[in-house]
Amino acid sequence: MTSSINTKSDKSAIIKVDNIYFGWSSEAVVLKGCSLQVPQGEFWMLLGNNGSGKSTLLRLLAGLLIPDSGTIVMPRKTGFVFQNPDHQLVMPTVGADIAFGLVSENLSQMQTRQRVKEALDAVNLLDLERRPIHALSGGQKQRIAIAGAIARNCEVILFDEPTALLDPDTQLELVSQVRNLVKKRGLTALWVTHRLEELDYCDGAFLLEGGKVVAQGEPQMLKEKLLATEQQ
Ligand SMILES: Nc1ncnc2c1ncn2[C@@H]1O[C@H](COP(=O)(O)OP(=O)(O)OP(=O)(O)O)[C@@H](O)[C@H]1O
Ligand SMILES: [Mg+2]
């Protein structure tokens, strides 16, 4: 199960992982020769059992960890959306939180407000700019985290099980909104999930097993393969 668009050194790939190894210690090697490429402007998902190394791989992609060997090529501006938004929204209000992510860019107050508004508009939450973070629903918090990445002009957004804490309706709303954002704005997204119904929204998916990608490509094919394995 391989995809023709996702072969070695595809020039259109914006995320490139080549043969990486990473261990928390010499006894706990998590990634062993892991390679993958995500084409620019596409929405890909990453599947794998608990403990297979999905979150570790995302942290490596975000530059939060360094591989022991192998290479990772990523754009300079990458966003990260965590499973629990309470771990990443740090300011008291929505507008302040998004503006906080722009501090290092030395923008004028006007430019900052413009970026914040544009990003909130992109996730359809413009009317919540002054809302305290604690008065948001889980789905709204995830959309604010996404707006933060959009405000920073991130080309790639990494999502680590962003729907795990959401109810089923909000879950599907979020995944479909991310698909729309990817298609409308030319973003690239890599989304970790355990929920097979989310595969309907992506362009392609990877299956991580034994420290490497063992299957990749067309989402429906991967879904059928996983369902068949579950039934065995
Ligand atoms: N900070 C850490 N220190 C040591 N070992 C860790 C650390 N974080 C994760 N691990 C180990 O690395 C392995 C991969 O963990 P990881 O969290 O990447 O898996 P995962 O695929 O994201 O799992 P899940 O589906 O449960 O989120 C596991 O064996 C885990 O115990
Ligand atoms: Mg994880």
**Class by alpha and beta content:** alpha/beta
- Tell me the CATH architecture of the largest domain: 3-Layer(aba) Sandwich
**DSSP strand count:** 9
Model regions low in confidence, pLDDT < 50 over at least 5 residues: 1-8
Tell me the β content: 25-35%
Quick check: average pLDDT?
Answer: 93
* The CATH homologous superfamily of the largest domain: P-loop containing nucleotide triphosphate hydrolases
- H/E element string? EEEHEEHHHEHEEEH
- For the biggest β-sheet, the strand order reads 5-6-7-3-8-9
| Integer tally of domains | 2
Radius of gyration: 18 Å
* Quaternary structure of the protein: single chain
- The number of helical elements comes to 6
**Mass-distribution shape:** globular
Helical residue percent band:
25-40%
The molecules bound to the chains, other than polymers, are: adenosine-5'-triphosphate, magnesium ion
